[in-house]
Amino acid sequence: MTTLTLFALLFVCMFIGMPIAIALGFSSMMTILLFSSDSLASISLKLFEAASEHYTLLAIPFFILSSSFLSTGGVAKRLINFAINSVGHIRGGLAMASVLACMLFAAVSGSSPATVAAIGSIVIAGMVRSGYPESFAAGVIANAGTLGILIPPSIVMLVYAAATEVSASRMFMAGFIPGIMMGSILMIAIYVVARIKGLPSQPFPGLGAWGLSLAKASGGLMLIILVLGSIYGGVASPTEAASVAAIYAYLVAVWGYRDIGPLKDTPWRKPGQSLVSSVFSNIISLPYVFVASFTNKEVRLVVKDAAKVSIMLLFIIANAMLFAHVLTTERIPHMIAESIVSHGLEAWAFLIVVNILLLIAGNFMEPTAILLIMAPILFPIATQLGIDPIHLGIIMVVNMEIGMLTPPVGLNLFVTAGITGRSIGWVIKACLPWLSLLLIFLMMITYIPQISLFLPEFFDRMNGY
Amino acid sequence: APIEIKFSHVVAENTPKGQMALKFKELVEQRLAGKVEVKVYPNSQLYGDGKELEAMLLGDVELIAPSLSKFKKYTNQLQIFDLPFLFKDIESVDRFQQSDAGQGLLKSLEPKGLVGLGYLHNGLKQLSANAPLRTPDDASGKKFRIMSSDVLSAQFEAVEAVPLKKPFSEVFTLLQTKAIDGQENTWSNIYSKKFFEVQPYITESNHGVLDYMVVTSADFWNNLPDDIRMELSKALSEAVTLGNQIAAEKASADRQLIIDSNRSELITLTDAERQQWVDAMKPVWSQFEDQIGTDLIQAAVASNQ
Amino acid sequence: MINKLHKLEENLISLILVSMTLLVFWEVIMRFVFNAGIHWSQEVTLYLSAWLVLLGASWGIREGAHIGVDAFVKLLPDPLHRLLSLVAIFLCLVYCTLFLYGSWVYLAKMKSVGIEMEDLPVQKWQAMSVLIIGFALLSLRFFELAWRVYTGKQLGFHLADEAKESMHLIDDTKQD
Ligand code: NA
Ligand code: NA
């Protein structure tokens, strides 16, 4: 009854056009009022907790701010030019390069929506410009973005490791090959589609033009090195690196390329100025640029756009946590999981059930919540059936990836809708064909444990643990 | 209808705290069948550790067991448990907690509408780092992650180290990439949070204690019928005894698991080395004497015998 | 009046986002370059993020930032579409009212107990007052929206896919 009310309310609210965030919050609230003794005050507390106690979520506004500067300044254009010059002559090359960019970014970020936000806002526009259908571009990126939690580092894997006491670094290693495999599958699929559909390709512009576009794009390319470098060089955590990326993107757009902001149309070197004096005057202009940015119309518009998308996402997430809270307190996932696993299944059948269970949960809840509830229930049974805990972990992570793309609660869907300005329905349709690839991939991961286990076992043997 | 007790905590069911909660549920449902019903919510399923105290004040949860440092805004006195090298071993901690002074501390939360029901061990804290820490000099200039606590901050500043406050979700990566050099924690936390995989050296310093207090709200507790309150008290103290026993077993088991993993080297201090740490960190006591109370500190020292 | 408020909100929200970014960035610089920590930065950043979201939610209504599913209502004739929108807005107002009440009780309790933030000498109820401010502003926005729908100026929530302005990103790059 409780479950029925919760879901009925959610779907009715969504169908009459309520914002998704409020539909999630409203249905949760009503269910609590009708069926539980929790106070309204505790619901407010829970919402505030959701909005203020998740440090890793801060990566989302920071990366969105960073991409906002990259895309409104000419930084994105230069990056896109470089990408087109590099791979534009291969059919589907730009889309493949975008997948590669997502994989690279996934290797520095632990979060899927952050990956979509960071890469998508630049490359979707670039692909559209080179003649790809927008839905194709959005679908590819929303899917490739899920690699954020599969390619290490991964927040979701850390949660799994803490919940089940398996080694976090073995989990990270186990995600490596599946991550590269998933990326490759996407690229192969893109190539096939590009051949069949005759997606655009452009003639190679020649080495000279290529080199020039590389030089022009270097300010933007440095961002990747900066983010990767600051995490692996022991400077910052992924969330902190996101803030570094935002500041850097601001500097490159406003002070470096000067496409927007107070220095717009001010050259780096005035005619007749000596090199030393120009470097000096540019450096001392920094404080002025910073202060003047606060009143600069273009800079403010960029920040405003970033705030808009960030708020929309974070407000949905906060309300989705309220929704998950109701599911948890009503013990709905527990009951379903316990009744299913009590049937005494074989290992292969158990894994099918696990997948179905996780896919359903993935429709409605966030990965962290699902893992914290499901891992303790599934883990002991899997161990009994002789399933390696690391293997189970990777299966769960891949399921969580799919959950990012399934309505009604799918973070990658929301981010993609946010950066393309399209409706959720449009984004879902765009993702669907690629989602089926992810499902096939899930079957491979489920029934070929060696994909996940090869690397951690190899390293364990090498280190003699 | 039976009285409902929601017991919310933020750790897994297989931890000492989780086991304690389940034991309490079992005992209560045996002895007060039909009168009291206990529901246990592990893993921050209800509230995270930043909000569970507030939820209790609102009357939405009846039992929680936060770590003692969570109470610093509720009463200054409980900071005593953060003082470095105050207790010789876990038995001394026990003696202090059971003494009149320790039991009195349970009541120190009453002005804020909370009642302490008992202490539960997590264990003694060890230092881990990416370089061996034998003397206080080794810690100098190094960055250590701490929980939010002025005492712990002062403790690391006393050895010229840099205390940093970071949320758990970031700590593993920060330690792995060496953006932070070290941290302090109990054996069971170092094991379950996987810090030993990214911290090559662990110094068995036993320099502090990380314990929990089981609390309930005064509104709820004082309105219970006397016989039920008595019975609950008894069940709780039995559950806590079991929890403490599991905590002790787990501490030594996890310590062994970490050693066996070969990923981290265990450093044991000589008496002379240990004394250097004590000398360096003990001045922290006098810094917080006014807030905590000299009598209380003396009572704690006395429990070392 | 409402336009001025909107502008004020917008400036405040941008300022919060920028402050959060600078604060976390500054913390990294302090740690890496100066080998020091800022003990209050984590807590302040997290509270700022709560202010960003809860204050921004109402601003986002006017900006058409919130996404929803409008595939179904779009199939309906306009009067019916507007009627359903009014129902939806009414439910949103119920949501706000309940939150306002809950937040009032919550903050009143925190005020009476008198707990401070972990790392700053600020009362928690003050730091969390955005719960009330945010939901009050959100209610105001929904009343305004209801009026616009009632008078026929708008059909629904002005959801993101109608707000083409965020498409400028793609149009920009298409131009050259
Ligand atoms: Na990742
Ligand atoms: Na989903």
UniProtKB/TrEMBL annotation, chain A:
<comment type="function">
    <text>Part of the tripartite ATP-independent periplasmic (TRAP) transport system.</text>
</comment>
<keyword id="KW-0813">Transport</keyword>
<protein>
    <submittedName>
        <fullName>TRAP transporter large permease subunit</fullName>
    </submittedName>
</protein>
<feature type="transmembrane region" description="Helical">
    <location>
        <begin position="371"/>
        <end position="397"/>
    </location>
</feature>
<feature type="transmembrane region" description="Helical">
    <location>
        <begin position="175"/>
        <end position="194"/>
    </location>
</feature>
<dbReference type="GO" id="GO:0015740">
    <property type="term" value="P:C4-dicarboxylate transport"/>
</dbReference>
<dbReference type="GO" id="GO:0022857">
    <property type="term" value="F:transmembrane transporter activity"/>
</dbReference>
<feature type="transmembrane region" description="Helical">
    <location>
        <begin position="272"/>
        <end position="294"/>
    </location>
</feature>
<feature type="transmembrane region" description="Helical">
    <location>
        <begin position="306"/>
        <end position="327"/>
    </location>
</feature>
<feature type="transmembrane region" description="Helical">
    <location>
        <begin position="241"/>
        <end position="260"/>
    </location>
</feature>
<dbReference type="GO" id="GO:0005886">
    <property type="term" value="C:plasma membrane"/>
</dbReference>
<keyword id="KW-1003">Cell membrane</keyword>
<feature type="transmembrane region" description="Helical">
    <location>
        <begin position="347"/>
        <end position="365"/>
    </location>
</feature>
<keyword id="KW-0472">Membrane</keyword>
<keyword id="KW-1133">Transmembrane helix</keyword>
<dbReference type="InterPro" id="IPR010656">
    <property type="entry name" value="DctM"/>
</dbReference>
<feature type="transmembrane region" description="Helical">
    <location>
        <begin position="434"/>
        <end position="455"/>
    </location>
</feature>
<dbReference type="Pfam" id="PF06808">
    <property type="entry name" value="DctM"/>
</dbReference>
<feature type="transmembrane region" description="Helical">
    <location>
        <begin position="55"/>
        <end position="76"/>
    </location>
</feature>
<dbReference type="InterPro" id="IPR004681">
    <property type="entry name" value="TRAP_DctM"/>
</dbReference>
<feature type="domain" description="TRAP C4-dicarboxylate transport system permease DctM subunit">
    <location>
        <begin position="7"/>
        <end position="451"/>
    </location>
</feature>
<keyword id="KW-0997">Cell inner membrane</keyword>
Automatic annotation (TrEMBL), chain C:
<keyword id="KW-0812">Transmembrane</keyword>
<dbReference type="InterPro" id="IPR055348">
    <property type="entry name" value="DctQ"/>
</dbReference>
<dbReference type="Pfam" id="PF04290">
    <property type="entry name" value="DctQ"/>
</dbReference>
<keyword id="KW-0472">Membrane</keyword>
<keyword id="KW-1003">Cell membrane</keyword>
<feature type="transmembrane region" description="Helical">
    <location>
        <begin position="12"/>
        <end position="34"/>
    </location>
</feature>
<keyword id="KW-0813">Transport</keyword>
<comment type="similarity">
    <text>Belongs to the TRAP transporter small permease family.</text>
</comment>
<keyword id="KW-1133">Transmembrane helix</keyword>
<feature type="transmembrane region" description="Helical">
    <location>
        <begin position="46"/>
        <end position="62"/>
    </location>
</feature>
<dbReference type="GO" id="GO:0022857">
    <property type="term" value="F:transmembrane transporter activity"/>
</dbReference>
<comment type="subunit">
    <text>The complex comprises the extracytoplasmic solute receptor protein and the two transmembrane proteins.</text>
</comment>
<dbReference type="GO" id="GO:0015740">
    <property type="term" value="P:C4-dicarboxylate transport"/>
</dbReference>
<feature type="domain" description="Tripartite ATP-independent periplasmic transporters DctQ component">
    <location>
        <begin position="20"/>
        <end position="150"/>
    </location>
</feature>
<feature type="transmembrane region" description="Helical">
    <location>
        <begin position="125"/>
        <end position="143"/>
    </location>
</feature>
<protein>
    <recommendedName>
        <fullName>TRAP transporter small permease protein</fullName>
    </recommendedName>
</protein>
<dbReference type="GO" id="GO:0005886">
    <property type="term" value="C:plasma membrane"/>
</dbReference>
<comment type="function">
    <text>Part of the tripartite ATP-independent periplasmic (TRAP) transport system.</text>
</comment>
<keyword id="KW-0997">Cell inner membrane</keyword>
<feature type="transmembrane region" description="Helical">
    <location>
        <begin position="83"/>
        <end position="105"/>
    </location>
</feature>
<dbReference type="InterPro" id="IPR007387">
    <property type="entry name" value="TRAP_DctQ"/>
</dbReference>
